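Hi V.,

Quick status before I head out on leave. The structure for the redesign project is tokenized and pasted below; the design run finished overnight.
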């Protein structure tokens, strides 16, 4: 079904792997379409309760495939290309009511960096790095980096990274808020899987609501947030997982959440 990605589901975890290692998983139009399709599938599949996003080979994603762009941009503008391919992908990720964990196996550059930042957690290999390289070819950030970056690292650091294209190693990424944790490269897959497994056994609908609430909170006042929290709390209370959590607490046992 897919030409440039691998999508597999096992033990309630969906794993999406960018699979163009010969070009460091650079993004042509086809892979962008396939990525959105995979995230859409994961959204609709009740058997999927957490998603891992990673890259095959030495890099996570080197960004836009500049060679492919020479033909793909013929007869169109940059803004049309961004709105047609990148924006729907990023929105599909952020609106997906399930956690997406980036298994950052190598360099995430340009739009590849945006792709990583659009995830809900980033577990980085000690060989990984991130770089907003847009400025290196005279372009501004796109694919959501202008939104994600300052919220993660603050405006001063965001300007520095965006305007210089500085490469941030995995240790520094954790220190400044661009990644959750760094692990030895050989342990990356295992460490990411263990986190995904915990999410796969968590109250899935509640996790989705948490993600939705955090997304919305950036644009709301405190008064609006307080009202929104009260509203969503009713939705959470109506889930089967909430009832199971109460029963487990009263029975002094570990809850068995089913994502319902």
């Amino acid at each position: 079904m897919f030409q440039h990605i691998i999508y597999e589901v096992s033990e309630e975890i969906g794993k999406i792997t960018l699979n163009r290692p010969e070009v460091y998983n650079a993004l042509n139009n086809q892979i962008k379409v396939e990525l959105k399709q995979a995230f859409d599938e994961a959204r609709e599949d009740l058997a999927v309760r957490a998603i891992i996003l990673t890259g095959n080979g030495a890099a996570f994603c080197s960004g836009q495939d500049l060679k492919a762009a020479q033909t793909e941009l013929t007869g169109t503008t940059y803004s049309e290309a961004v709105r047609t391919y990148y924006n729907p992908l990023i929105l599909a990720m952020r609106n997906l009511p399930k956690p997406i964990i980036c298994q950052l196996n190598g360099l995430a550059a340009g739009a590849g960096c945006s792709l990583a930042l659009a995830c809900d957690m980033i577990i980085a290999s000690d060989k990984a790095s991130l770089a907003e390289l847009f400025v290196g070819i005279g372009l501004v950030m796109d694919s959501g980096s202008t939104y994600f970056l300052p919220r993660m690292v603050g405006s001063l650091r965001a300007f520095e990274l965006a305007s210089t294209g500085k490469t941030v190693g995995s240790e520094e990424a954790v220190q400044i808020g661009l990644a959750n944790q760094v692990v030895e490269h050989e342990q990356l897959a295992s460490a990411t899987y263990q986190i995904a497994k915990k999410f796969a056994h968590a109250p899935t609908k509640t996790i989705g609501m948490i993600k939705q609430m955090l997304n919305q909170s950036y644009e709301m006042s405190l008064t609006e947030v307080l009202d929104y929290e009260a509203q969503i709390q009713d939705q959470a209370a109506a889930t089967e997982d909430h009832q199971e959590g109460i029963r487990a607490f009263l029975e002094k046992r570990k809850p068995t959440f089913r994502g319902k």
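Above is the designed sequence. Residues 78-94 form the longest helix (17 residues).

G. will cover questions while I'm gone.

Best,
W.
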